[in-house]
Write a structure and sequence with these properties.
The chain is of the alpha/beta class. The chain folds into 2 domains: 76-205, Lysozyme-like (3-Layer(aba) Sandwich); 214-312, no CATH class. Helices cover 39% and strands 9% of the residues. The protein has 11 helices and 7 strands. Strands 3-2-4-1-5 form a 5-stranded mixed sheet, with helices on both faces. Strand 6 (220-222) and strand 7 (225-227) form a beta hairpin. Helix 9 (262-269) packs across helix 11 (298-312). The radius of gyration is 26 Å and the shape is globular.
Length: 313
C-alpha cells in the first residue's frame, strides 16, 4: 500500500511539473484563478457587506434580495495597438502585476487570439479617458490589443480574426455600431492607437463603427469651378500637379460652413474637447488617416459635418 501511495504521489508531482512545462503561463494563470475566486466571494456575500459610512445608513430590519438581476454587460469595444515588438512581449507585459495594464483580448499577427480576461471583468486597458459623458471606459468596455509596433501595417490574418471576434462580441452583448472606437478616440491627448494604418472604413462597412458617406469625399463641380480647396485637390491626386496653374484660374476655394462649430460636432461624436487641438488630431487619425494635425480643411469639415449628424441621429 505504501508503494502505491509513493507511486501515486510521484505521478501527481510529474503531472503538475509537466503541466507547468507545457504552459509557460501556468503561474500567472493560477494568479488569475485566485483573483477570480476573491471577486466571486465578494459577489456571493449575502447580504452584501457594508463598510465605512455605508454602515450608518438606516437599513431595513430584514435584508430583501431581488429576484431580477444578471451580470453587467460591456457596451463598448476599445481597439489598441500594443506598441511592442512581439505578441510574446505583450503577453508578458499583461501578466506582470507591476505593469498594471491588461486587455481582454490580444490578437497576434498570424491571427491567433489570446483571451486574457473574462468579458465581464474590468480590464485595465483604457486608463484616463473620456467618450461622451463616460469617464470610466474600463468599467463598460472590452479592450482588444493588436500586435503592432505602432508604425507598421496590420496583417490580413490579424484583421480577419478581429472581424470574427467583433462579430461575436456585437451579437453577444448587442453593442451599438457607434460604440466600436479606438484608444486615441477616448484619450486624444495621450494616445495614438490604433495607428493610421488601421482599417476603420473596412470595420465600419461590417457594422463596427461609423463612417462618412463616400459622396462627401468627392469634390463638387460647379460650372468650371471645383468646390474644394486647391491643396487638397492636388494632394488627393484628383488632378496632376503640373496642371496647378490652369486649375488655379478656375478653382473656387470653398469656405464650408457647418451649422454647429467643429468643437460641438466633435463633442457630439464623443470626443473630449477640453483640448480641441488634440480632439481634432484624434478625429483625423480615425477618419482621415493622413495629415494628422489640428487644422481641418474644407473637405475635412464636410466629413466632420456628415459624421456628427450620424452620431447625433
Amino acid at each position: 500500500m505504501k508503494n502505491f501511495f509513493r507511486v501515486f504521489s510521484l505521478f501527481i508531482v510529474i503531472s503538475v511539473l509537466f503541466s507547468c512545462a507545457s504552459n509557460p503561463y501556468a503561474p500567472t494563470n493560477r494568479m488569475y484563478k485566485k483573483q477570480a475566486k476573491v471577486l466571486t466571494k465578494q459577489l456571493r456575500q449575502i447580504p452584501p457587506e457594508q463598510t465605512g459610512i455605508a454602515t450608518t445608513l438606516p437599513y431595513g430590519e430584514n435584508w430583501v434580495g431581488t429576484t431580477n438581476f444578471n451580470l453587467r454587460k460591456p457596451n463598448y469595444v476599445v481597439i489598441h495597438h500594443t506598441a511592442q515588438e512581439s505578441v510574446e512581449q505583450t503577453l508578458k507585459t499583461f501578466t506582470l502585476p507591476r505593469t498594471q495594464v491588461s486587455a481582454h483580448y490580444v490578437i497576434a499577427k498570424d491571427g491567433t487570439i489570446y483571451n486574457m480576461l473574462n468579458d465581464f471583468y474590468r480590464g485595465w486597458h483604457g486608463g484616463a479617458g473620456k467618450w461622451g459623458n463616460n469617464t470610466d471606459l474600463n468599467s463598460s468596455s472590452i479592450g482588444i490589443e493588436l500586435d503592432n509596433n505602432g508604425k507598421e501595417e496590420f496583417s490580413k490574418l490579424q484583421i480577419e480574426s478581429l472581424l470574427k471576434l467583433l462579430k461575436v462580441l456585437k451579437e453577444k452583448y448587442n453593442i451599438p455600431d457607434a460604440n466600436f472606437i479606438g484608444h486615441s478616440d477616448i484619450a486624444p491627448s495621450r494616445k495614438v492607437d490604433p495607428n493610421a494604418n488601421f482599417p476603420w472604413e473596412e470595420l465600419a462597412g461590417e457594422g463596427y463603427g461609423l463612417w462618412y458617406d463616400e459622396a462627401v469625399a468627392i469634390p463638387e463641380i460647379a460650372g468650371n469651378s471645383i468646390i474644394l480647396d486647391l491643396p487638397t485637390i492636388v494632394e488627393e491626386g484628383i488632378i496632376p500637379a503640373d496642371e496647378n496653374e490652369i486649375i488655379a484660374k478656375v478653382a473656387t476655394i470653398n469656405s464650408f460652413t457647418m451649422d454647429v462649430s467643429p468643437e460641438i460636432a466633435l463633442r457630439i461624436i464623443g470626443y473630449d474637447t477640453s483640448d480641441v487641438e488634440s480632439a481634432i488630431k484624434a478625429f483625423k487619425l480615425h477618419f482621415i488617416q493622413k495629415n494628422i494635425n489640428s487644422v481641418l480643411s474644407d473637405g475635412e469639415l464636410k466629413i466632420l459635418d456628415n459624421l456628427y449628424k450620424k452620431y447625433f441621429y
